[in-house]
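Hi R.,

Here are the chain sequences for the assembly we discussed:
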Amino acid sequence: MLKRGDVLLILLLAAGLAAFAIPRFMSGAAAGKTAVIEVDGEPYMTVDLSDEGREIEIRTERGYNLLRIRDGGIEMVEADCPDQLCIGFGHVHRPHQTITCLPHRLFVEVIGDAGEEAELDAVVN
Amino acid sequence: MPSSTDAAGLRKLSVIAVFASLAVVLGILESMIPFAVAVPGAKPGLGNILVLTCLWFFSARDALWLIIVKTLLTAFILGTFSTFLFSIMGALASFLVMWLMLRFARKSFSLVSVSVAGGVAHNLGQLTAAAVVLGTSRIYFYLPVLLVAGVVTGVFVGMAARYLIGTLSRIGLFRELAALERDGT
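And here is the predicted structure of the full complex:
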C-alpha cells in the first residue's frame, strides 16, 4: 500500500526530526540558568531562574501577561490573549525551551550555559 | 470565485460554498476542544479534509478560494484576528505543498502522505511567520514538537479525506464536475 513517494516522505520527515531533536537531547540534561523575554522582537528583560517566586508583569498595547519563576524554571500564569495558548506551554526549565504568546508578540526562551552566554550578553548590552 | 454562469460552474460554486461552510463549522468545533493544552499551537486541522477533497476534484484556484474564505470566516467568528497572519501563512504553505504533490505526483503519493505533508507544511509556515514577526529564529527549537503533531493530525485528516473522496466519487455530480475540470485544463 505504501507508494514510492510515501517512503520518501517518511525518510524525509525522520531526517528532519532527527536533525532538530538530536542536538536538543544532547543539551537536554543541562538546567536553564536564565530566561530571556522579548516583546515584538526586541529584548525586554533577562531574568534569573533561581529568583524563586518572582513575578514578571508585562503590559503592552497588545495586552497583559504574567510570568512566574518557580522551581528553577518559568511559567506563564495569566494572560488576556484570546487563545490562552501561552499558558499551555506550562513550566519550562531546560535550555531552548520556549513560551510564546503570538497575539501579544511575546517570546520567552530559557538560556543554559557558557555557549549561549555570549549571545545573552549581546542581548543585555 | 469562478465567475462562469453556466450550469456546471454554478453547481461547482455551490459545492465549494458547502465545503467552505463545513470547514468553518469544523474549525469552530475544534476550537472548543482543548487540544492545544497538550501541544500549544497545534490543531487537528479538520478543515483540511475539505481542502484536500476540493483539490482532488477541482482546480487549484477553487481550493485557494476555499482556504481564503475558510480562514477569514473562522477568524471573524472566533475573533482571532491577532493570529490571522499565522493561520493564513500556515494555510497557504499547506495548500502549496498539497497542490504540488497532487498536480505533479498524484500517482506516487497516497492521500495520507499528501495530508501529512500538508499538515507539516502548515506548522512550518505558521512557525516561519512567527519567526519573522518575533524577529527570532530561535523559535524553531519548537519545531520538532510541531512536526510530530503535524504528522499525527495529517494521518487522521488524510484517512478522513480518503473516505470522503471515495464516497463523493460515487455521486454523479462529482464525477461530472471532475471530468469537466480535466477537460478544461
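Chain B has one domain: 7-184. Residues 7-32 of chain B form the longest helix (26 residues).

Let me know if anything looks off.

Best,
T.
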